Amino acid sequence: MSPIVKRKGEKFTLPGKYLLFILTILCAGSVILTLKTNIFSGPLNAVVGWAIVPFERGISTVGSWLSNRSEELVQIRDLLEENARLKAQVDELTIENNVLQQNRYELNNLRQLYKLDAQYEGYDKVGARIIARDAGNWFHSFVIDKGADDGISMDMNVIAGSGLVGRIVDVGANWAKVTSIIADNSNVSGKMLATSDHLIVSGDLEMYGQGVIRFEQLVDSADKVVEGDKIVTSNISDKYLPNILIGYISTLEKDANNITKSGLLTPAVDFEHLEEVLVILELKQTLEE
Amino acid sequence: MKRVIAMGLLILICFVLQCTLFHGLSFGGIIPNLLVVLAASFGFMRGEKSGLITGCISGLLIDIFFGSTIGFYALIYMYIGYVNGKFHNIFYPEDIKLPMVLIIGSDLFYGIICYILLFLMRARFHFGYYFIHIILPEIVYTTLVTLFLYPIVLWINRKLEAGERQNEKKFV
After folding, report:
1. ipTM > 0.85?
2. Does A134 touch chain B (CB under 8 A)?
3. DSSP classification of residue B27
4. A-contacting residues in B 42-81 (Cβ below 8 Å)
5. Smallest CA–CA separation between A98 and chain B, in Å?
6. Do the chains contact at B71 and A28, CB–CB below 8 Å?
7. Which three-class secondary structure state does DSSP give residue B93?
8. Which of A132, A137, A143 sits opposite B134 (nearest CB)?
9. The CATH number of A187-269 is which of 3.30.450.20, 3.40.50.150, 2.40.10.350, 1.10.10.10?
10. How many contacts (CB atoms, under 8 Å) link A and B?
11. What is the rounded distance in angstroms from the CA atom of residue B109 to the CA atom of residue B135?
12. Does B147 contact chain A (CB < 8 Å)?
C-alpha cells in the first residue's frame, strides 16, 4: 500500500522523499523559467525588500565597525614597519615627482581632448551604501540600500571614486543588486584610452586573488599599447556608458594567433574596501526595437 | 507553530549575518557558510523532511538576493538537508563527532557542486586553485564557526522539543 494513502483517523503527512521529489521538480522548473525571463523577481523582490533589507541595513553597520576595529589593530603593527619603508620611498618619489609634473601637462591636454571630466560630471548620480555582500565565496555581487524608489533601474552603471564598479542587475523598491566587473561571470567591452583599440575585460576569480583581472581580444596592430595604459568602457558597449575608467594594464602578451593581445589589468577601484558607491542615473542609449 | 516561527527566524538571522557581519570578519576574503550548517544540522537532528525544508528556504533566500536564477541554490541546499536527514537514526545529541563530519562533508559537497556547475561549465579548469583558495578555507572557517553555532542550534531544538512534548501531554 502506498504510504501516501490516508488511513482513517490518522493525520495526513507527506513522506520526505515525496516532498523532495515535488520540490526538486518545482525548483528545476523555476530555474528553467528564470534562466531567460524574470517572472518571479517582481513579487519576490518586494517581499525580501520588506522583510530582510531593514535587518541588513542595521547589521552591516555593526559589521563595518567591527572590521574597522580589527583592521586598526593590524595597522598599528604594520605602521612601524611601514614608516621605515616610506622614508626610503620619499627619496624615490621626489625623483619620480619631477617626471610626473612633466607628464601632467600632457595629461591635461589629453583630458581636454577626450572631455572625460565633463562627461563624468554631466551624469546624474545617486550615492548608495553597500549593505550586504554575496552569501558565498564564488562571485562578487552586493546589495545597496537604494532601489526603484530612488530612480534606480536595471543596467544602470555603478561607479566608485573615478572607476567602474559594475552594473545593476536586480532592483527592489528599497534595494538593488550590483554585479561587479571583477565577478567571474562578468564581461565588459572596453577600449584603450590612448589608441581607441577595443578589447574585452572579463572578471576572474583566480586572478583577482592577486588584485588583477583579465582582458583579451585587444587588436593593437600599431603596437602602441604599453603597460600602464588606461582602459575605459567603450562606446560600443550596450550596457556601459562610454569613457568610464576601468583600470590600468599591468601585463600585456601577444596571443598565439599573432593578431590579438591579452593580459592583466589592475582595476581602478579597490573592491576589497568598497563601502559607498555612486549609481549613474542614466542608461546607455540603445536602439529602439 | 512555535517551531515554524523559530526556524524562520533562525534562517533569517543566519542569512543576514552571513551577508553582513561575517564579511566584516572575513579571513582573506573568505566567509563561513552558516546556512549549510543550519540545513545539515536540522537534517540530522530532526530528519529528512525538516532538513530539506530548511535547506530549500535558505537556498531560496540566496537565490533571490544573489542568484541569477531562482531555485538553483535552493536545490543544492535542499539535497544537503535531505541527505543529512538519512543520518537521523544514528545521531545522538551528546556526540559531536558525527555532526562535525557531516557538516564538513556537506560544505565540501557544496563547494564542489558550485565549482562544477558554475565554473567548470564555463571552462575554468584549475580545480586545484579553486579548491585551495575557496573551498578549503571555507570549510575550515565553517568548521570553526560550527563549534559555536552548533551548540546554539542544538539548544534551540531541545527547547522546542520539550515544549512540543508538554503540549502533547496536555491533550492526552
Report:
1. no
2. yes
3. B
4. 47-49, 52-53, 56, 61-62, 64-66, 68-72, 74-75, 78-79
5. 37
6. yes
7. coil
8. A137
9. 2.40.10.350
10. 150
11. 10
12. no
* Nearest CB partner across the interface for A63, out of B15, B20, B52: B20
B109 touches chain A (CB under 8 A): no
Q: Per residue of chain A (289 residues), give pLDDT as tens.
A: 455 555 555 666 778 788 888 888 988 888 888 877 777 767 777 777 777 777 777 777 777 777 777 778 778 878 888 888 888 888 788 778 877 877 887 777 666 555 544 556 677 888 888 888 887 777 788 888 888 888 898 889 998 876 889 999 888 888 898 998 888 888 899 988 888 888 999 988 888 778 888 898 888 878 888 888 889 898 888 888 888 889 999 998 888 888 888 899 998 888 877 878 888 888 877 655 4
- Chain A segment 159-198 residues within 8 A of B by beta carbon are 169, 177, 184-185
Residue type (1 letter), A75 = Q
Instruction: Spell out the domain ranges in chain A.
Output: 187-269
* Chain A, nearest residue to B43 by Cα: A16
A52–B134: do the CB atoms touch at under 8 Å?
no
Decide if A25 touches B, using CB distance below 8 A. no
Q: Residue A245: how many CA atoms within 13 Å on its side-chain side?
A: 20
* Residue whose entry in the numeric block shows the C-alpha cell 598565439: A256
CA distances in angstroms from B30 to A167, A257, B132, listed in the order given: 23, 37, 12
A141-144 and A176-180 as β-strands: parallel, antiparallel, unpaired?
A: antiparallel
- Tell me, which fold does domain B2-14+30-157 have in CATH? Arp2/3 complex 21 kDa subunit ARPC3 (1.10.1760)
For chain A, the DSSP string reads: --TTSPPTTS-----HHHHHHHHHHHHHHHHHHHHH--STHHHHHHHHHHHTHHHHHHHHHHHHHHHHHHHHHHHHHHHHHHHHHHHHHHHHHHHHHHHHHHHHHHHHHHHHHHTHHHHHHHS-EEEEEEEEE-SSSS--EEEES--GGGT--TT-EEEETTEEEEEEEEE-SS-EEEEETTSTT-EEEEEETTT--EEEEE--HHHHTTT-EEEEEEE-TT----TT-EEEE-TT-SSSPTT-EEEEEEEEEE-TTSSEEEEEEEESS-GGG--EEEEE--PPP----
Q: How far is B151 from chain A, CA to nearest CA, in Å?
A: 23
Whole-model pTM: value is: 0.72
Q: How far is A139 from chain B (nearest CA, A)?
A: 9
B48-66 vs B72-85: helix crossing angle, rounded to 10: 160
